[in-house]
Design goal:
single chain, 609 residues, alpha+beta, 8-stranded mixed β-sheet, 5-stranded mixed beta barrel, 23% helix, globular, Asp-tRNA-ligase_1, protein biosynthesis
């Protein structure tokens, strides 16, 4: 490809042509035209990457740059870069003793530039487990670009490292082949998504603000301003902005949005995360779902198989009835079955055992201590129920599963059964299989946990009600279904969206009369909806979670370059950190340290992570 010429502030020079095996440059009349071949080595001091060399390169002179992976006495060096490994043969000629001494004095993870010639390995010395195992590079010169001190751990995937160690030395952890592969797969996925949305469907990539106004229903990070008592917040999502862009007539918007939630980290969640944010005007649920199915089918990594569309779809009610959760893992059966009628007139002593259906037969399974899926209040509820209800034989009508244990508990027990079976060698969930599922018709409102007599949004307050249920909004709002849809992959929610309310009066009624919210906080949005807002809807895909499932990682931290710890800390830079009082004065902020009654009340920093 010929790139446009760019000017060089220098006198006129004689036309000169420079060659190597990968590029050609022409300097003429103060301008430079560069002709490069495709590949990751163009514009680089290397001619090839380590992992691309093979038998077709035999006889070529190459320049390689990378890190020392192994040192095998004075015989050879294994050189590594992002693309893979290659064996560099150390010369034994007496005339090249300085070159040999340089190689022998290297430390692991030193950075080198090696020039040499590719040759075939001697017969019987090929390494079939190595992509470059047919060849080796005979070194003719070496330049040590940097040396390396003794590292806290080896850069090898099989070396066990604690999570804290990986976070503290993240720049070293990212050198591992697995982390490199994860980040590069993520990059390719994102590029394909951009192509699909922009070039095939006319979406516009728009960046929305990170500093925004606080609201009353979110879990937000606050950011102080220089106006006393006034704060920004870091938004949980660009929800309001993307709706305002639809009011503005942009028609189709997307962005890779950075989002923030001030809550504890989990394997599939952390304080800051990335979502593929999408919004469309003049669209219904079917249009959004078809767009997302096409997006995933187009961008899906080829090595992970083929995505079949359309995705299955179930209602929220059906998902809870069959699986006990609103994000069911459909890679295996074991659906919940109500057996009340079968045992209507029998008396059964269950004795602290929970009942579930496995492979078509009902069997008793004891809930183990420390269950992964049944923890905290769920485990306590199950134990209390077992102790109080199952100590004596009772009619099943007195302890019906649906009302006694509740289906969410049985849904978690179903997952525990799958883990128990897998722990005994029974293959229940294939990690190489990807099952997508749409869940629709969620309740628009749910009772508040701390105030059951009040309602809160099941999704967010901007979700539109199902048209048939609009009359119930003014009489029985708890029965209203919302136009909300979730995308589930292998039992994990990877996306969620809805058709939005585009009528200002309806939006105001829900905020003021149903949710009892202060509408002043959303004056800007309500005013915008009065200015000819089109019908619109959208979705947000959790990019971190989606990629972690694709690569088979149990934690999203394995697909994020610089993640936070479980406590939300950056162990590499020790953030968050203390600031001196002088830096707080412009924000009119002072820190009041928590103290224990009877203890020293003098200011003291909290304990380290």
């Amino acid at each position: 490809k010929t790139f446009p010429a760019w000017r060089v502030d220098s006198p006129q020079v004689t036309p000169t042509r420079r060659h190597n095996s990968r590029s050609t440059s022409l300097i003429q009349n103060g301008s430079i035209n560069v002709v490069f071949c495709k590949g990751p080595s163009r514009l680089s001091t290397r001619s090839h990457t380590c992992g691309e060399l093979c038998s077709r390169h035999i006889g070529e002179e190459v320049t390689l740059c990378g890190w020392v992976q192994y040192l095998r006495q004075d015989l050879f060096v294994i050189l590594r870069d992002f693309s893979g490994l290659v064996q560099v043969l150390v010369p034994h000629d007496e005339s090249k003793h300085e070159l040999r001494n340089t190689f022998c004095g290297l430390s692991v993870e030193s950075v080198l530039m090696v020039k040499g010639r590719v040759k075939r390995r001697p017969e019987g010395q090929e390494n079939k487990n190595m992509p470059t195992g047919e060849i080796e590079v005979c070194a003719e010169s070496v330049e040590v670009l940097n040396t390396c001190r003794t590292l806290p751990f080896e850069i090898k995937d099989f070396v066990k490292k604690s999570e804290a160690m990986r976070m503290q030395y993240r720049y070293l952890d990212l050198r591992s082949p697995q982390m490199q592969a994860n980040l590069r797969l993520r990059s390719r996925l994102v590029m394909k998504m951009r192509e699909y949305l922009c070039y095939q469907h006319g979406f516009v990539d728009v960046e929305t603000p990170t500093l925004f106004k606080t609201n009353s229903w979110g879990i937000e990070f606050l950011v102080p301003s220089r106006e006393a008592g006034k704060f920004y917040c870091l938004p949980q999502s660009p929800q309001q902005f993307k709706q305002l862009l639809m009011v503005a007539g942009l028609d189709r918007y997307f962005q890779l949005a950075r989002c923030y939630r001030d809550e504890g980290s989990k394997p599939d969640r952390q304080p800051e995360f990335t979502q593929v944010d999408i919004e469309m005007s003049f669209v219904e649920q079917g249009g959004i779902r078809a767009l997302v199915e096409g997006l995933l089918q187009y961008s899906w990594p080829e090595e992970k198989g083929f995505v079949t569309t359309p995705f299955p779809c179930v209602t929220y009610e059906q998902a809870m009835q069959d699986y006990g959760v609103d994000k069911p893992d459909t890679r295996f059966g074991m659906k919940l079955t109500d057996v009340t009628e079968i045992f209507q007139d029998t008396r059964i002593g269950w004795m602290r055992d929970a009942v579930t259906q496995s492979h078509g037969c009902v069997q008793a399974i004891r809930v183990p201590e420390g269950s992964k899926h049944l923890k905290g209040k769920d485990m306590e509820s199950l134990k209390n129920t077992a102790q109080t209800q199952f100590t004596q034989p009772l009619p099943l009508t007195s302890c019906c599963l649906a009302s006694l244990l509740q289906r969410p508990l049985l849904g978690k027990l179903r997952l525990q059964c799958a883990e128990l079976l897998e722990g005994h060698g029974v293959r229940v969930r294939d990690p190489a299989v990807f099952h997508f599922l749409w869940v629709v018709d969620f309740p628009l409102f749910l009772p508040k946990e701390d105030a059951p007599g009040q309602l809160e949004s099941a999704h967010h307050p901007f979700t539109a009600p199902v048209p048939q249920d609009v009359p119930l909004l003014y009489s029985e709002p708890h029965k209203v279904r919302g136009q909300h849809y979730d995308l589930v992959l292998n039992g994990c929610e990877v996306g969620g969206g809805s058709i939005r309310i585009h009528n200002s009066a309806q939006q105001r009624y829900i905020l003021q009369n149903v949710l009892k919210e202060d509408v002043v906080l959303l004056t800007h949005l309500l005013e915008a909806l009065e200015c000819g807002a089109p019908p619109h809807g959208g979705i947000a895909l959790g990019l971190d979670r989606l990629v972690s499932i694709i690569v088979g990682s149990p934690s999203i931290r394995d697909v994020i370059a610089f993640p936070k710890s479980f406590r939300g800390h950056d162990l590499m830079s020790n953030a968050p950190d203390f600031v001196v009082e002088e830096e707080l004065k412009p924000y009119c902020i002072s820190v009041v340290w928590p103290s224990v009654e009877g203890a020293d009340r003098s200011p003291a920093p909290p304990p380290e992570d």
